[in-house]
Design a protein that fits this description.
Elements: H1 3-8, H2 13-33, H3 47-50, H4 53-76, H5 84-105, H6 114-133, H7 139-142, H8 145-148, H9 162-172, H10 175-179, H11 184-190, H12 196-208, H13 211-239, H14 257-261, H15 270-278, H16 281-303, H17 322-359, H18 375-379, H19 383-392, H20 399-420, H21 426-450, H22 455-470, H23 476-507, H24 511-539, H25 553-567, H26 576-596, H27 598-602, H28 608-617, H29 620-638, H30 640-670, H31 684-695
Helix pairs in contact: 4-5, 4-6, 4-24, 4-30, 5-6, 5-12, 5-13, 6-23, 6-24, 9-20, 9-24, 12-23, 13-30, 15-29, 15-30, 16-28, 16-29, 17-21, 17-25, 17-26, 17-28, 19-23, 20-21, 21-22, 21-23, 22-23, 22-25, 23-24, 23-25, 24-30, 29-30
Protein name: Metal-nicotianamine transporter YSL7
Family: Belongs to the YSL (TC 2.A.67.2) family.
Pfam families: OPT
Length: 696
């Protein structure tokens, strides 16, 4: 048979050999980069063995640590960086130390696996996540009398009590977990959504459990410990100089007294220097730019119109005066940014779904399917994907269990929530729960594409809809804020669970162990977070007050959002509504330009949401964050490899040390122990007057 005949019959040995060689080369290349080949000799423990007692003991300790940190960030600025890396690293360190001691004593029964590490990380993030979604710095604190006194409506409030807060969180925090469980296969395997934070955490955990990664982890833990100690001792040192209001390093007029009056100063906060090292450069620059536009330009110009735009007799904290402009313009920017991103993620979600359903043969693999993929599609997968898919589909969570759990918790919520908030009628809750699974899916899908959870945006949607539906005469303020809590908890926990499923998929942790860990972590958070908040609430009498150590800016913002929804715009000061329209439009326009110019130039355009935060509280924390960015930038220029490896550990150490100092500081405040020294700064003229007064 000649060459032409062979080609006519559809078979050419030369081409066939080339194809075989290319396949072998591809296979060898895959094996070189394969993660699961490294671990193929290690037995994957069953889902029950992944849930160890030591994992949950470590998770409980770390949950307290991270809840304090998240609570502090919540009550100061509301900017909370991802703490997944820190949770994974500290979980590895604690259990590795534990197992090493047991190994030396001959008592070690079960080695520490990456699956157990993933269980710890999942539990800690679920627990500390309640400190955010629980609304202690936003909707829940906005219900209090303390925040109500700062707004135009001082009657509609609820007295805070530890009992009903814990009860409320237990009722609303678990529903989101059941809403997206049936979709895990579709999201992770069929759609292959990225979930960047979940993927990054999985790669980190996988690397810890390789010989080379273990060495790097040891270095990272050493740096974290060193900067944790420094940050804790620095917080302790600063405490000695804070005997009165505006005393200490936190009130150091580093850029001059005039700048200090306009909230431009470096306040020596190790926490926000660390946050600045973790957050992308553009976020830090956006926050600083927002501070310059507001406190550097706008507020001084508006204050010059005192007596014309608003009454000259009003205090600086009045919402009919300058404070009204600060808060409502910030709200306009937050809503403009939130609306744009909501529509962008929703459209991307719908387009993605259309693409998946139109161009891919989903047949029996639509949302509620739980069976394994076709043999033909399996054969195209790499070794890693085959192994991960096989184990991910091995331990199923029954669909009827998820649906039954959702319906049961929804029924309990409708029966009990109206007893906690009599303004929140059962039919409001029913409407929320009918639409919640769809919104939870949209949030989880959007988070998988962009790593952006829009939980607070969905919460604001509930504020306006339920608040307006209830009306001012029927307690619309509290109904709107409570509805915000219900919605925010559902969509937040849904996206968190899907992130954890992605991490579990990449580390061969069972979906069942992930789900159980998330439930236990959520239960821990429902107790730990309210107790931590209560400690802050009782220890610091000025909590939530403008200009205090813990101003809780978003509590005032959420309170005034619901008032806008319930009462309309009649209470706003002169020209405030016009400025709100301008900044609402500007937020949408900036986002649109950012998307149109593409990633190359878009990364230099600021983020309106970040710009809005200092409009109300000032720029002092932005300067701290930019110092953190500068340290990281210089470090990367000197030694990029070392900076990439150790910067997250250094930043985590700074955040954790300063955060943990808050605990003894709160205990000292509750015990009535006051610092011995007040370090205060005066102008030359005021100092001369004080000297003259003391000398007389």
């Amino acid at each position: 048979m000649g060459k032409n005949e062979r080609e006519e019959n559809g078979f050419d040995p030369e081409n066939h050999n080339q194809e075989e060689e290319e396949k072998k080369k591809k296979q060898l290349k895959e094996e070189e980069h394969s993660v699961e080949r490294i671990f193929e000799n290690q037995e994957v423990p069953s889902w029950r063995k992944q849930l160890t007692l030591r994992a949950f003991v470590v998770s409980f300790v770390l949950s307290i640590l991270f809840s304090i940190i998240v609570m502090k960030l919540n009550l100061t600025t509301g900017i909370i960086p991802s703490l997944n890396v820190s949770a994974g690293l500290l979980g590895f360190f604690f259990v590795k130390t534990w197992t090493k001691l047991l190994h030396k004593s001959g008592l070690l029964r079960q080695p520490f696996t990456r699956q157990e590490n993933t269980v710890i990380q999942t539990c800690v993030v679920a627990s500390s996540g309640i400190a955010f979604s629980g609304g202690f710095g936003s909707y829940l604190f906005a219900m209090s009398e303390r925040i109500a006194k700062q707004s135009t409506d001082t009657l509609d409030f609820k007295k805070l009590s530890l009992g009903w807060i814990i009860g409320f969180l237990f009722i609303v925090s678990f529903l989101g977990l059941f809403s997206v469980v049936p979709l895990r296969k579709v999201m992770i395997i069929d759609f292959k959504l990225t979930y960047p934070s979940g993927t990054a955490t999985a790669h980190l955990i996988n690397s810890f459990h390789t010989p080379q990664g273990a060495k790097l982890a040891k270095k990272q833990v050493r740096e974290l410990g060193r900067f944790f100690t420094f940050s804790f001792l620095w917080g302790f040192f600063q405490w000695f100089y804070t005997a009165g209001d505006n005393c200490g390093f936190a009130s150091f007029p580093s850029l001059g007294l005039k700048a200090f009056d306009n909230r431009f100063y470096f306040d020596f906060s190790a926490t926000y220097v660390g946050v600045g090292m973790i957050c992308p450069y553009i976020i830090n620059i956006s926050v600083l730019l927002g501070g310059i536009i507001s406190w550097g330009l706008m507020w001084p110009l508006i204050e010059d119109r005192k007596g014309d735009w608003y009454s000259a007799d009003l205090g600086s904290g009045s919402f009919s005066g300058i404070q009204g402009y600060r808060v409502f313009i910030a709200i306009a920017m937050i809503l403009g940014d939130g609306l744009y991103n909501f529509l962008k993620v929703l459209s991307r979600t719908l387009l993605g779904l259309f693409h998946q359903l139109q161009y891919k043969d989903m047949s029996s693999e639509l949302p509620v399917a739980d069976h394994s993929s076709d043999v033909s599609s399996q054969s195209q997968l790499s070794y890693d994907d085959k192994r991960r898919t096989q184990l991910f589909l091995k331990d199923q969570i029954p669909i009827m269990f998820a649906i039954g759990g959702y319906v049961a918790i929804a029924a309990i919520s409708m029966a009990t929530l109206p007893h906690i908030f009599h303004q929140l009628k059962w039919y409001y809750i029913l409407v929320i729960y009918i639409f919640a699974p769809t919104l939870a899916f949209c949030n989880a899908y959007g988070c998988g594409l962009t790593d952006w959870s829009l939980a607070s945006t969905y919460g604001k949607l509930a504020i306006f809809i339920i608040g307006a539906w209830a009306g001012a005469a029927h307690g619309g303020v509290l109904a709107g804020l409570a509805a915000c809590g219900v919605m925010m908890n559902i969509v937040s926990t849904a996206s968190d669970l899907m992130q954890d499923f992605k991490t579990g998929y990449l580390t061969l942790a069972s979906p069942r162990s992930m789900f159980v860990s998330q439930i236990i972590g959520t239960a821990m958070g429902c107790v730990i977070s309210p107790c931590v908040f209560w400690l802050f609430y009782k220890a610091f009498n000025d909590l939530g007050q403008p200009g205090s150590q813990y101003p809780a800016p978003y509590a005032v913002v959420y309170r005034n959002m619901v008032l806008l929804g319930v009462k309309g715009f009649s209470s706003l000061p002169k020209n405030c509504l016009l400025l709100c329209y301008v900044f609402f439009g500007a937020a949408i326009l900036i986002n649109l330009i950012k998307d149109l110019v593409g990633k190359k130039w878009g990364r230099f355009i600021p983020l309106p949401m970040a710009m809005a935060i200092p409009f109300y509280i000032g720029s002092y924390f932005a300067i701290d964050m930019c110092v953190g960015s500068l340290i990281l930038f210089v470090w990367e220029k000197i030694n990029k490899a070392k900076a990439d490896a150790l910067a997250p550990a250094v930043a985590s150490g700074l955040i954790c040390g300063d955060g943990i100092w808050t605990l003894p500081a709160s205990i000292l405040a509750l015990a009535g122990v006051k610092p011995p020294i007040c370090m205060k700064f005066l102008s030359r003229g005021n100092n001369a007057k004080v000297d003259a007064f003391l000398g007389s």
